[in-house]
Design a protein that fits this description.
82% of the residues lie in helices and 0% in strands. With 110 residues, the protein is mainly α. It has one domain (1-105). Helix 2 (13-46) runs antiparallel to helix 4 (63-105). The chain is elongated. The chain crosses the membrane at residues 24-44, 64-84. This is DUF485 domain-containing protein. Keywords: Membrane, Transmembrane, Transmembrane helix.
Length: 110
């Protein structure tokens, strides 16, 4: 594949749309996770008394469900990414791939 083909692929509207949507989705989910995690770390650092206080009047403290919530949230965000990638971005990926293959085949490349 020569430089002109690579340039055409990089400037292909479908390819650019696919890259843009994947980037937006990835950064959005990353920002959500970072916000939640950094918030929890700030809570640990600056309000230990709250985290050590009882959740239900018993031995369970607020730190336990909040910590578990962060772990569960990470699995949920992975599921959200997988769902969106498999149901929406894969179609766009296939369309972009067909156009890229057409560009590659123009000069007899496979």
């Amino acid at each position: 594949m020569d430089d002109s083909q690579v340039d055409r692929i990089l400037h292909n509207p479908k390819f650019q749309e696919m890259v843009s949507k994947k980037r937006t989705l990835s950064w959005t989910l990353t920002a959500i996770m970072l916000f939640i995690y950094v918030g929890f770390m700030l809570l640990v650092g600056y309000n230990k008394e709250f985290l050590a206080s009882s959740f239900s009047g018993g031995v369970t403290t607020w730190g336990i469900p909040l910590g578990l919530g962060i772990i569960v949230l990470s699995f949920i965000l992975c599921g959200v990414y997988s769902y969106i990638a498999n149901n929406k971005l894969d179609q766009l990926n296939e369309e972009a791939l067909k156009e890229v293959e057409a560009i590659a085949h123009e000069k007899g490349m496979h």
